[in-house]
Amino acid sequence: MRTIVLNTNNIVPDGKNNKLIYRFPNSVLFKNNSIAVSSVSMYYSWFNISAELQNNTFTISYLNPAGVLTPYVVVIPDGTYEVITLNALLQFEFIQLGLYLLDTVSGNNVYYAEFILNPSRYAVQINTFLFPTALPVGYAAPANFVGFAPTTYNPVITLPANFNKIFGYTAGFSTDLNQSNSFVPPANDPLVDKNGAGTISYLSNIAPQLQPNQSLYFAISNINNQYSQPSSIIYALVPTVRIGEVIIERPPQFAWNALIDGTYNELRLTFLGSDLSPVTINDPNMTILLVIKDNDEYAGKG
To answer: d(Cα 291, Cα 267) in Å, to the nearest integer?
Structure first.
């Protein structure tokens, strides 16, 4: 059995850190050989939201002082986000828009929509709140205040394709404007609720996928695995650590995959995501050990 070590030095320098090439000192003839992953050491450093994944926008719409519904597209910086950090981003955008009020008693900002995790329902909950037409007692307007509309309303949050999967809603989902507090929840719909103050709550209608690439597939050149699509996949890495922590993986036993017979001067390893597209790995620090054996090497040894 022979061992091949791939590390930072083997990464193709295209800025994506998802392709590694191992070049043999001389051309090697493979005949009746198999390959397997022996160990993996790398950081959990691939983003769950990015321009590359095309899931980095959502829209806030509000009524301006003329009563015109005004959309504002939020562009999320590439990164790794949880629901709580996306809610903080939403609040930041409200501040930038001037679409909030100040509670002069508590000194806190008052926002009119929020994203929260609802673990008991395995859902992301979107709450929108009724925006008034004048300053309530004990409130003040910020310097960049967007202004009051002629009628009360709830800000509208729209989730476009791809971002909708993060929260577990159908593509294009929008919360209701609830103009003049007129919205009536659909009968017998357990995913939408409204209280007497005009607050509307929505729950995911499909399972949220906060990390679109929850598995990292290893694809090796010179493999012909007839049971896999694509046929080059030899391993699936599922992180069990938090974002930014090191993943240390040592398979309890080797999952051998046959190498195509032939003469080669290199092997290529590519990291693929759940949709089988290459995944950008942000931290290039990694060590991948592969082992190669003759198919009759351990014949009769268990």
So the answer is: 12
Cα dihedral 206, 59, 156, 79 sign: positive
The two three-digit tokens of residue 57, written as one number: 């926008």
Reported as a single tens digit per residue, the pLDDT across 192-218 is 999 999 999 999 999 999 999 999 999
pLDDT, one tens digit per residue, over 36-79 is 999 999 999 999 999 999 999 999 999 999 999 999 999 999 99
Helix (H, G, I), strand (E, B) or coil at 249: strand
DSSP 37-69: EEEEEEE----SB-TTTT--EEEEEEE-TTS-E
For residue 88, give the H/E element and its range: helix 83-97
Domains and CATH numbers, the chain: 2-46+213-294 (2.60.120), 57-203 (no CATH)
Could you tell me the two tokens for 236? 């699936």
94-108 residues labelled b (16+ CB within 10 A) or e (exposed): beebebbbbeeeeee
Label residue 120 exposed, middle or buried (CB < 10 Å: 0-12, 13-18, 19+): exposed
